Amino acid sequence: MDEQRIAEGGGGSSSDASLAPRLTVAAVAHRLGVAPATLRTWARRYGLGPSEHEAGAHRRYTPADVARLQTMRRLTLEGVAPAEAARVALALPLVEPGPSDDAPLPDREGRLRSRRGGPGGRVLALPGADGAVRGLGRAAMALDAHAVTALVREEVARSGVLHTWDHVLRPVLVAVGARWAATGEGVEVEHLLSDCTAVVLREIASAVPELPGRRPVVLSCAPEEHHALPLHALAAGLAERGVGVRTLGPALPAAALQAAVRRTGPAALFVWSQLPGTADPAVLEALPVTRPPTAVVVGGPGWAPDRLPRRVTVAADLPHALELVDRALGA
Ligand code: B12
Asked: Rounded to an integer, what distance in angstroms lies between the CA atom of residue 49 and that of residue 29?
């Protein structure tokens, strides 16, 4: 059996990691072909013990713990000194490996290498991720647009926009961004993942008309801001609550944003800025004053809250943005 695949309950559904069996010392020792005392020594000396605590019970090994121990076992069999093998095993991300996982394998020098080879590997570091997150990460890294779209669509149908955004999409987006920051690679992955995600979120948003008799809700990116996914997440989240919106998309010029507010007199205007360079408070200062007034809400790490005009409210996250828009609509 492939050493990296012995851990049980791997890929597939979002809940498989939590459903996977937790193993006793004796069971793991049997699997690895080592004495239970060896496992206890590895736990005490190198910190390669079980990571889960159950009140009133013995500690159990998770599939990710077992995967680390497999690495430890393989490297020691290859002649690597135990302390060095443990260092490599501990450096592995604590990801539950699945049957089709592309989990990195450490070489003898301890460098992590992709199963499929190639510089930088083709895996994302997704520590502690569940099956849905890993599956999406794999599909994105494989540039498999059909699979990415299908996975996002299924997840939204199963668990809703908020859960999908926070617990499935964001971890993968953050990991893709971190990989780019570390290696300079993967902009094509960012594009594909963003495009497929936007397709699904827009399907949801576009199916819901505006509330009759209410002033509109307008969502826009700040000028020159090309990160637009949070806008689509907000639009889809509002759609789930029966609120249709007008989304103006990425990089809207300041004059066009002013024109849109003047022409529509929205109940709420949401402006996203991902990068500090696109968060110019003067753009918000210059917004026309409507009657009744428009609730101006901003979101994203670009904005510096202490530099914003007084009429502007900052949304910390997606649920908060939904709440602020709801409030502006008098819901
Ligand atoms: C997808 C993506 C892209 C796509 C965007 C496509 C699209 N249609 O949106 C493309 C390829 C165009 C792109 C381009 C660039 N990108 Co980019 N990108 C990303 C990525 C992977 C996800 C962006 C995203 O949607 N973030 C939203 C969520 C996932 O972020 P979060 O941190 O979890 O969210 C926090 C808050 O924002 C808030 N929140 C989360 N969701 C929501 C929703 C709402 C409604 C609200 C109110 C709040 C909220 O809660 C969280 C906790 O604070 C990020 C990685 C990252 N960590 O964000 C990089 C990232 C933002 N990009 C980065 C960079 C540098 C760039 C480029 C300059 C270079 C490049 N990589 O190509 C260009 C610049 C483009 C431009 N001028 O705007 C850096 C920014 C670093 C920095 N702080 O300055 C990041 C962080 C990658 C990294 N780790 O370095 N990017």
From this structure: 12
